[in-house]
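user: can you give me the structure for this one chain? tokens are fine.
assistant: on it. calling the predictor now.
[tool input]
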Amino acid sequence: MKQNRFIVFVFCMLVTGCNNTVGTIELKGKVIDENTKAAIPNISVTIEALDQGEDKSDYIYAGDFTTDSSGCFAFTLKKVKNLSLYNFNIQGNSAYDPSNQVLGLTELNNYGKFLSFEINRIVDFTMNINRLSKTDFRDTLTVSWETNGVDGKTIYPFKIENYSLNSENGLFWVGGDVKSQIKTKVYADKNTIVHWELHRNGKHKDISDTIFCKRDVANSVNFTY
């Protein structure tokens, strides 16, 4: 008799769990600037149900919405049967970096009408490189940078402008009359650290510059060698 009661209990729990993944949830909230907490208008968000398997995870489209002129949103989420995790993919734009947040049905049921998604402001950043040496040194300069502790190349595409050097070398320069710019974007109101590595005449020198990049400002750093 006790075993039968246990089986009935487990069956009820399973039925309850399945029923919890059917129906809709009313979602309300806003997308805000991570630093200022100001609401951001016209930000698109895509929702995907997360199907976690042993070998890989699949994402099933569950809807999308865009914040209004006040940075707020209201959306009716149709739950995907048997899936309880949802990935909110917050799209970025020229001023904000994309981000994503995974929420479970328990969180959505309890706090779905008070959601707040944070995204990071990004700003223009230019690295100016100028080689003044007129010697025949086979200088080799390499450059890398990190913004808020993250590899800068993964945050935003960079563009190299070589004024006096026709080079396809990417982020390193060998000898020559170098006058170049690297243009990219980095996190606003955070430290960006640029690492310069100079190999000259058999010697290696590491140099770092730390720049606190402000929003709404043309941020830059110069390196002359």
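assistant: here you go. The chain is about 10% helix and 50% strand. The CA atoms of residues 38 and 133 lie 48 Å apart.
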